[in-house]
Write a structure and sequence with these properties.
Blueprint: H1 2-13, H2 42-48, H3 52-68, H4 77-80, H5 90-95, E1 98-99, E2 105-106, H6 112-117, H7 137-153, H8 158-164, H9 172-178, H10 202-208, H11 242-270, H12 280-288, H13 294-310, H14 320-349, H15 352-381, H16 418-428, H17 452-457
Antiparallel strand pairs: 1-2
Length: 458
């Protein structure tokens, strides 16, 4: 084999020998060039990049972590090598395999199933993060730290105050349960009573918000004393008697008269008064306004200046005698006022009986006003209140004239709407606010376009 290799080397060294894979170019032959690849894209980079060395390096690191529990370069020599200087003792010889009497060789190695179950990696298992997490752990930790700071300062929190003022539990119920059944003086026990299933403290449930809050009594009161369904009078029947029907017509007539009066009053207020109409004289005055001669205005201004100059008041200094006289008059008026007050107080002593009578009369008037106020309040409960910007307007009365009455139910024509009647009843009983029908307002203007086919026909 060796002579053949030596022969090939000798032949290759001879001049004129052409190699099959030569890097030197020869005349008339193309030079072999390395293929140029674009690695500017992720797909091309992954396809043409050689990462075998990186994979081998990572695989070596993982192998070291599995076998030794870390990198060999980071471990000390004492943990990797040791010097075995122990002599061969009978204890060590006992571990070696021995032959039984039967001639079979018994090994000391463990079973295959035990080897499979043993850990073959020294990498610790990943930490279960979810096992250590608690909901709202950061918030609870902050609350605990704040409680420790308050305790160190000696501050009592609101929760601790509630626990301090918490009433003690009554132990009578527990004593009654432990009481023997043969006691004739025990309390009566009803076997059919409904016991509460909740065993927790009601005070604790109320403080923690787990107990239902008691509903206020004012929410149980009805907003109006009116019935849900109002029955129409006897005159509204399909076949009423004459007097009942006439009474209903009179009520409807009064309602219409009242509406007409209000409309006339409004029209009268909005009407223009006769003296406010324009006449020929007022029209002429408006047209001539601003054309008056300026001489009259100048004369008027001069007169005003004379009056203003003549109206200046010159202060005259009082003498000492005048000041003493003025002071004496003030003191005399004060003494006179005090004397009058004193005499009035003395006079009231003789008017005690009349004062007592007037006070009694005032108290009676106050009681009468209170009674009248209560009556008005009771009457106001039956009236619709102002719940919104609109005022309640009662529904029009559904009345039939004498010639429109039907003699039987077959000929009776339905009138009104049940839905509208219920809606008005809710408004009248102060359960919903009066409302108006929503007005439709178009946002965009509708554009009408005449199509070509329609234009051809017309």
């Amino acid at each position: 084999m060796a002579p053949n290799r030596r022969l090939k080397r000798v032949v290759a060294s001879q001049p004129g020998f052409l190699k099959l894979k030569s890097s030197q170019g020869v005349a008339g032959s193309a030079v072999h060039r390395k293929k140029r690849l674009n690695k500017n894209k992720k797909k091309s980079w992954n396809k043409y990049s050689d990462i075998n060395d990186v994979d081998e390096f990572l695989q070596d690191i993982r192998h070291q972590e599995r076998t030794t529990g870390g990198l060999l370069s980071e471990k000390s020599d004492e943990s990797l090598f040791f010097l075995d200087v122990r002599p061969k003792t009978p204890q060590l010889a006992a571990v070696e395999p021995v032959e039984e009497k039967t001639g079979r060789r018994k090994t000391a190695r463990p079973l295959r199933i035990d080897l499979i179950l043993q850990l073959d990696s020294k990498v610790p298992p990943p930490k279960d993060v979810l096992a250590y997490q608690r909901p709202n752990a950061k918030k609870l930790r902050r609350i605990a730290q704040k409680a420790e700071k308050l305790t160190a300062k000696g501050v009592v929190t609101r929760r601790q105050k509630r626990l301090l003022v918490r009433p003690k539990l009554d132990d009578t119920a527990k004593k009654a349960e432990l009481e023997p059944n043969n006691n004739p003086e025990r309390d009566y026990y009803d076997i059919w009573r409904q016991e509460s299933t909740s065993t927790a403290d009601p005070w604790f449930l109320e403080q923690t918000g787990k107990m239902r809050v008691k509903r206020p009594d004012r929410l149980n009161e009805k907003p109006s004393v009116l019935p849900a369904v109002e029955v129409i009078s006897a005159g509204g029947s399909y076949n009423p008697d004459f007097f009942s029907h006439q009474a209903l017509l009179q009520v409807a007539h009064d309602v219409e008269v009242k509406k007409q009066k209000e409309a006339d009053k409004l029209e009268k207020r909005l009407a223009v008064k006769k003296e406010n109409f324009a006449t020929e004289e007022t029209i002429m005055m408006e047209q001539v306004e601003g054309l008056v001669e300026e001489e009259d205005e100048d004369n008027a201004n001069e007169e005003e200046e004379d009056v203003s100059v003549g109206g200046i008041v010159v202060a005259v200094k009082k003498t000492e005698r005048q000041r003493r006289k003025k002071r004496a008059e003030i003191l005399k008026a004060q003494r006179r006022q005090a004397q009058r007050i004193k005499s009035d107080n003395q006079q009231q002593l003789f008017q005690l009986r009349s004062i007592k009578t007037s006070i009694k009369q005032q108290e009676e008037d106050t009681k009468i006003k209170q009674i009248q106020r209560k009556r008005n309040q009771e009457a106001q409960k039956a009236q619709p209140r102002r719940l919104g910007k609109l005022k309640f307007e009662p529904q029009d009365m559904e009345v039939q004239l004498s010639d429109e009455l039907a003699g039987s139910l077959r000929q009776l024509k339905p009138e009104g709407s049940v839905l509208k009647d219920r809606f008005k009843s809710l408004q009248k009983r102060n359960m919903i606010e009066p409302r108006d029908r929503a007005k439709f307002k178009r946002r965009l203007k509708v554009k009408y376009q005449e199509k070509r086919a329609f234009r051809a026909i017309t």
